[in-house]
């Protein structure tokens, strides 16, 4: 009994000694900074810039500060250069300015898409908008010779333009089959109807076609660039799709007077001929083909734009998707040899 009591007292004494030892070690570490902190000048330990210290001849030189690791700064997605920007810089081309996204883009792109799809039926309405927006005179657009589909499309778009404030005081005189309205006066819509809608339409169709092909497109819009020789130019749309550049220029007027410059810039931008699309709003198919052969460009009209893109970026079919899915399943299945060996081993 006495022996058991002595063993308990001994255990308690050992525990107290261990506690005292830990307390002493903590006090010692509190009065002796870490080697990294000790190596820094005194002022730096408090977060201040170190002062210059001159060692006397009889003193040892102060220990140099140990460099601390710098923080790694990861740029945000918006700060990272796009593939299109990287491509241009590799060709010795610098971007001076580029259009930035705005909150109005979703609405304006949607309007532009509908205009582009219906343009053959609303060409008269668009022409009347452009002809009168500079003068501000009220428009009276007679539709007596128009087909029922043209009339329906024009009245539908005019109603939408009026609801959005692009035109004002729109009325349709059913008896006279005439549309009457005040033309656009806001710079946003003046620029839009002068050609901005066409660029928005082509960009929207581009992204739709590329998405159906299972690809992505990061597109620069209205990029003002400077070549290495100091020459300036503005690109309507420039993108990199599937590892190669794609350049699209949109012209609502006849592009013949500008096409030699387009052809020259294509080489400077490093774009293959079939990926340099010049889209003429009112070009005939025959003239588009002739210009393509003469200037080594892919010249198309409004109707030929989407098919030209689909030829460059064919859509992924259901058969291809099923094939890819089957390949993925097969990749995770055990092979017949593995299964056979496993069964043989069990037997």
Task: Explain what this protein looks like in three dimensions.
With 347 residues, the chain is an alpha+beta fold. Among the domains are: 105-191, Arc Repressor Mutant, subunit A; 195-312, Trna Endonuclease, Chain: A, domain 1, CATH 3.40.1350. Helix content is 50%, strand content 16%. The protein has a six-stranded mixed β-sheet with strand order 1-5-6-7-8-9. Strand 3 and strand 4 (178-182) form a beta hairpin. The longest helix is centred in the N-terminal third of the chain and has 29 residues, at 2-30. The relative contact order is 0.08.
Q: How much of the residues is beta strand, in percent?
A: 15-25%
Q: What's the CATH topology label of the domain at 195-312?
A: Trna Endonuclease, Chain: A, domain 1
CATH class of the domain at 195-312: Alpha Beta
Structural Rg? 36 Å
CATH architecture of the domain at 195-312: 3-Layer(aba) Sandwich
Largest sheet: 6 strands, mixed
The total count of strands amounts to 9
Helix content: 40-55%
End-to-end CA span = 66 Å
Unreliable runs, pLDDT <50, ≥5 residues?
A: 28-79, 331-347
Major beta sheet, strand line-up? 1-5-6-7-8-9
- If you average the pLDDT, what whole number results? 79
Based on Cα principal axes, name the global outline: globular
List keywords for this structure.
single chain, Arc Repressor Mutant, subunit A, Trna Endonuclease, Chain: A, domain 1, 347 residues, alpha+beta
Element layout with pairings:
Elements: H1 2-30, H2 35-39, H3 42-45, H4 83-90, E1 94-97, H5 105-132, E2 139-142, H6 148-163, E3 168-173, E4 178-182, H7 187-212, E5 217-226, E6 232-241, E7 244-251, H8 259-269, E8 276-280, H9 285-295, E9 298-301, H10 302-312, H11 318-332, H12 336-346
Parallel strand pairs: 7-8, 8-9
Antiparallel strand pairs: 1-5, 2-4, 3-4, 5-6, 6-7
Helix pairs in contact: 5-6, 5-7, 7-10
């Amino acid at each position: 009994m006495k022996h058991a009591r002595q063993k308990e007292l001994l255990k308690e004494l050992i525990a107290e000694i261990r506690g005292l030892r830990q307390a002493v070690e903590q006090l010692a570490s509190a009065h002796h900074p870490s080697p990294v902190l000790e190596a820094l000048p005194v002022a730096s330990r408090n977060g201040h810039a170190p002062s210059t210290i001159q060692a006397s001849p009889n003193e040892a030189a102060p220990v140099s500060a140990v460099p601390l690791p710098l923080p790694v700064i990861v740029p945000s997605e918006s700060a990272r250069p796009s593939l299109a920007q990287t491509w241009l810089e590799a060709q010795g081309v610098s971007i001076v300015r580029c259009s930035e996204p705005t909150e109005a883009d979703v609405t304006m792109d949607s309007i532009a898409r509908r205009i582009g799809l219906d343009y053959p039926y609303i060409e008269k309405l668009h022409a009347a908008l452009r002809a009168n927006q500079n003068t501000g005179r009220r428009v009276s657009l007679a539709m007596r010779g128009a087909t029922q589909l043209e009339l329906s499309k024009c009245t539908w778009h005019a109603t939408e333009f009026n609801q959005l404030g692009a035109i004002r005081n729109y009325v349709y005189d059913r008896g006279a089959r005439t549309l009457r309205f005040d033309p656009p006066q806001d710079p946003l819509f003046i620029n839009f109807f002068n050609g901005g809608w066409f660029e928005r339409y082509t960009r929207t169709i581009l992204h739709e076609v590329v998405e159906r092909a299972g690809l992505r497109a990061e597109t620069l819009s209205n990029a003002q660039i400077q070549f290495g020789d100091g020459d300036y130019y503005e690109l309507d749309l420039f993108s990199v799709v599937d590892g190669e550049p794609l350049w699209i220029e949109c012209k609502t007027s006849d592009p013949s007077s500008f096409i030699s410059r387009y052809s020259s810039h294509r080489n400077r931008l490093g774009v293959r001929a079939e990926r340099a699309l010049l889209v003429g709003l009112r070009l005939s198919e025959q003239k588009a083909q002739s210009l393509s052969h003469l200037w080594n460009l892919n010249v198309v009209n409004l109707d030929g734009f989407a098919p030209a893109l689909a030829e460059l970026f064919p859509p992924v079919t259901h058969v291809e998707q099923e094939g890819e899915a089957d390949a993925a399943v097969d990749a995770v299945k055990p092979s017949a040899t593995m299964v056979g060996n496993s069964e043989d081993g069990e037997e």
